Amino acid sequence: MCFLDKKILVFCFCVGCCFICIPGNAEETACVPLADTLDLETAHRRALSDNPGLQAAALRVEQARQRLTQARALYFPSLAATYSASKTWLSDRAVNGARAQAYEQAKTPLSSILNTPNPNPFSQFAQVGNTLVMARHTRNTVDDTVDSYALGLQAQYILFNGFERKFTYAIARFARQETEAAQNEAARLLLDAVAQSFYAVQLARENVAIAKADIEFNERLLKEAKVRREVGTGSLSDELNFEVQIRSARSALLNAKRTWKVARVTLAALMGLPDSDLPEHVVLATLAEEKEEELLPPGVDEQIDYALSHRPDLQRNRYSVERARAQVGQKRAQFFPQVSLFASQDASLSDDSHFEDEDFSSTVGFNISQTLFAGGANYAAWKEARYARQEAERLLSDVELGVVSDVREAVANLTTAQEELRLQRATTDYVKRNRDLVEKEYNAGQGALVRLTQAQRDLIAAESRLAQGQVSLQQAWHNLRTSTGETLGNLENLN
Fold it and tell me: Is the pTM of this model over 0.85?
């Protein structure tokens, strides 16, 4: 997924744990095997692609974009079509009343027939009978149910609502930018976590190599001690001493391997590998020697200026302030009237669902509404938004102070790491030369075993501190780049 472009979100599910997904569009996405040697850039790329936490952050950005689209829709008119069909069962009282009324109306001609002279009584009698039959028939035709049908089309557009639409859209826009900044902040922290785990694996591997070298050294001296004792120039205590040193070195080796395995599991989890398992065939790149420029002190003011312009958590809080200001305007809009236009075409029929053009009526108009009193709720909401804005502004100031503090602390740690590495490199050189001299003296029978044992211990400790110093320097540089947000500068290249 690309955190700068943010147009495409690609999830790639790979079989096994030794593949890396290179995201892009649907046609360009491909999975390639992890190389046998894993460098930090590849580990970062894999984490950005497959870390579930970062994928969740990307989905939150997509949600914010959809909320922005919803806010934009307020600028368009609304159009709704309605259709309804209903069947009503009338009450017995209503049905009987309607039938009685229909019967009486149908009997109205009867009085006229009776009051009109007719020389033919049989004809008059027939007319009376027909009238009564028709009245009864009319009464029976009154149904006890009513069918109703209605069809309508309504359009409405808000002309003015106190700029509520404007501020609602601004809120959604700043919320989207805030979410994007939060996504970049999650990426910044993830890149730092991956780097620290990567360096931890490298340091553990160096300690494994140091422990193995210690074992080989003592095993070589043990063989020489056995030869000396066989020819009568050595002692059993020398052999036992080297046996003890070998077992001590093996214990250190076991601890170093345990640390190495745990660090690999942590790194694999951050990279999003299945089952948090880094394949056995994958080894990390060799711990590089420091470069001359890495031993130069960084400029504090330049680092602070860069951090204030690029830290995503600072950008997120700035957008939060803008969103809070827009919310104040949105709540203030409740004090203004709302003016809207509306138009509709409607038709309503009974016992017939076939609508014709002449069945429709048209209506146009406008509506003005103003809330005169709401118990103080609108005023309280506006005051609440103002306090929320002030809170966001204070939080922004707090984050700015935190960013400056992070950079200054990172610079101080880096300067210390540079001095420590210089010291440890020189110390290790002196300790190694001393160990070699003591070993020669011991082999010549002029040195004590205890001096050789101590010299070897000093060398192992010095080499371990040197490896720690090398890793600390790389960690300190990465911490500084993390504190300034510089690690996100290569984000487009990593995705």
Answer: no
